[in-house]
Each structure stands twice: as C-alpha cells, then as structure tokens.
Write a structure and sequence with these properties.
Length: about 190
C-alpha cells in the first residue's frame, strides 16, 4: 500500500471524547447522591413527633405573631386514640410567639383556639392560647380549620372576637375549592 508510514509512537489518534449523554448521566447521578450524602452527615431525628403539621397564618391585627401547630394522636393505651365510631382523635399543640396582649385588640381577655368545620357551621372551642407551647385541646374532626380568636373570656360558647391566627388541617388541603360556593356560582 503506498501510504507513508509513521515511526512507532508518533502516530496521533484523535482524542477519545466521552459521549455527552454519558457525561450528563454521571453529573445527574452525582447530584442525586448529594442530598443523601448530606443527610447521612446530619443527625437524624430519633422519632417522628406527630402525624400532621398545620401551617398557621397571622392576620393584619397580629402582624408580629408567628405560630405553628401540630396534631398528635390523643393519649390512648393502644397507641392511636379513636372515638367509638372509629374516628381518629388528635391533640392540637400550638407554638406561638409575638401575640400581643388580647386587650390591645379591644375588650378581650384571652385568645381561644377553635376547631371549625370547613363550611364554618360548627365552631368547637379547644382551649386558651398564649405565647409559648400549649396543647390546647383534642379534636376528632378530619377536615377542619384551626382558628385562634381574641375573646372576652377564657371559655366562650361561641366566637365573637377577631381572628388572629388561622390554618387548615392537612386533610383540608385535599378539598377542591373550585367547587366551593364562594368560587363557583353554578355557571359552567
């Protein structure tokens, strides 16, 4: 064959490039492994505290208030508390910071937590709330609003004062609000 021969060791092959797809796969796997590596470095919680957290929101009357709520299974010798009908019972714990004295909002003496049905037809008082951590009461409602109001007394039968904090139970987030009367007027 009439080609020119190169001396041994002088031959230049084109550099072998890693295909782009393989390179991106390696990068993606490395990024997926990163959170696992970071998690294994951190201390893991020994036990999950409770089944549900409730995001709480303040109102314009209490702009400095910050709160979080958590549902725990109510005390039971069987580990899970239920009613005679088999409905789960939960203790409601509130951690609150920054609530002003109730009297700064008007003629009020206490803050009261309520478990309220989504249609607002039933308000069940749970207990009084203050700054700090408090287990305010027990509820057996599946979907409910957790509402804190300022009230004239510590144990009212009905709510009268302004809302200062509110949140929705985790199962309430599953509701399709587009079919609620407030958003849907029966017109397609």
């Amino acid at each position: 064959m009439g080609g020119t021969r190169r001396a041994a060791g002088t031959r230049r092959d084109p550099p072998r490039l890693v295909p782009a797809r393989l390179a991106w796969t390696v990068v993606a796997l490395a990024l997926l492994a990163l959170p696992t590596a970071v998690w294994s470095q951190q201390a893991r919680p020994a036990k999950r505290e409770g089944p549900y957290d409730i995001m709480m929101f303040n109102t314009p009357r209490t702009v400095d208030a910050v709160a979080e709520a958590r549902l725990f299974y109510a005390s039971s010798p069987f580990g899970v508390a239920v009613t005679v009908d088999g409905i789960d019972r939960y203790d409601v714990r509130l951690k609150v910071h920054g609530l002003p004295a109730p009297s700064t909002l008007g003629p009020y003496d206490a803050y009261v937590a309520w478990a309220v049905t989504p249609d607002l037809s039933t308000w069940r008082p749970l207990g009084t709330v203050g700054n700090g951590t408090t287990v305010v009461g027990t509820t057996d409602l599946n979907k409910f609003l957790l509402v804190v109001t300022a009230e004239a007394g510590a144990s009212p039968d009905t709510h009268h004062g302004p809302t200062v904090l509110h949140g929705t139970s985790p199962s309430g987030w599953l509701e399709n609000f587009l079919t609620h009367d407030a958003f849907f007027r029966g017109v397609y």
